[in-house]
Request: fold
Amino acid sequence: MSTITKIQSYHRDIKQLRVAAYCRVSTDNVEQLESLENQREHYQKYISNQPNWQLAKIYYDEGISGIQLTKRDALKKLLTDCHNHRIDLVITKSISRLSRNTTDCLRIVRELQQLNIPIIFEKEHINTGAMASELFLSILSSIAQDESHSTAGNLRWSIRQRFASGEFRVSSAPYGYSVEDGNLVIDSVEAGVV
Reply:
């Protein structure tokens, strides 16, 4: 038997892992949606280039905060599919994409470990299937949670400062108005409805 035939036979005997990717962006602005599309393209290529991986599905939540699980339908669907034995491995960009809440992150990791489904966090180079301890994951997850709180605090401060200085910035005008030169102007057509 030739070496190539042995290699091909070996690869046929190895179980194909059904790999799912999870992506999330926290806002639905154009840059974030492009990031989401880039993540999806990355995982389609990345998974298809692994010799014993097959793409199960790419799950994604757009415009959803990573602090709470309640509105993250794609993540909930991913977990359901894991419980229904449709997935063997989960891969995501970073801990903060999975969750910005330490308790939720650890709960998800433990839940999937009980199902023998590891999670790979690319940015942190963590494979939960090879972890000796949750300590490192806990620390990084706490950092992601604190970063989220800090970002939210910075945004609130920035908004208060703009209000105090009389600045007004809006990405989209409320119904009945349009934005011209950075100012809200009454839209005569929509104003009639209001």
About this structure: The two ends are 80 Å apart (CA to CA). The longest helix spans residues 135-165. Helices lie at 3-13, 30-48, 73-83, 95-98, 102-114, 135-165, 188-193. The first strand starts at residue 17 and ends at 25.
